Amino acid sequence: MDDIDRFALHRHLPTSTRPLLGLTILVIEDSRFACEAMRLLCLRSGARIRRADCLASARRHLQVYRPSVIIVDLGLPDGSGLDLIEELDRLTPRIGIILATSGDDGAEAQAMAAGADGFLAKPVTRIANFQSMILARMPADRQPVGPRLLTEDEVRPDALAYRDDMAHAADLLGEDQDERTLDYVAQFIGGVAHSAEDNQLERAAVALAETRRLGAPTRADTARLAGLVQTRLGERIAM
What we know:
Radius of gyration: 19 Å
Largest sheet: 5 strands, parallel
């Protein structure tokens, strides 16, 4: 726990409606849409949030302060979140709670093997599930006193955050893509589309990823994906 957290605990104790008061959560996430969901979850739960959008940024954050909780997306632009989880798990003293997040099937087993304490399957929107994942891994003296108010509420990120992700995807698709960039853009768009429940776009991203896996030509899949991204940028997205 960093000094800021210790100071906050003297002023704010967790309550039944804001059970994560006093915690600072570092979210390492390249999608603005997914990060906006995390921001809303933290806001509703009483926690403060800090964000890093890549491994390099996360490591710079960690040189300055120690958050109470770290949530690591597994697919990042400069490498795998699994590598960071392994690093964090070896730290002494260890950061209190390390969580992984991904929309990929099978990612949970990889995250837990790397040293994560828990796994948040995307889309992460349910407030009660988010709070329970963290509270179940906290010591008794950090738990809210008395019963906790359970809610079935879900957060809904602003559609503008999705457009920001689509703009970023369009920039990536507009560049000369090497193999690494193609792998990343398929993963990024697929993850964002999965979180936003945009099934058509997710299928197109999965198709590009599968074409890459097979070593087949990617021009048609890349063009289709780019066209769908441009369509979303040109329309008003209702969510």
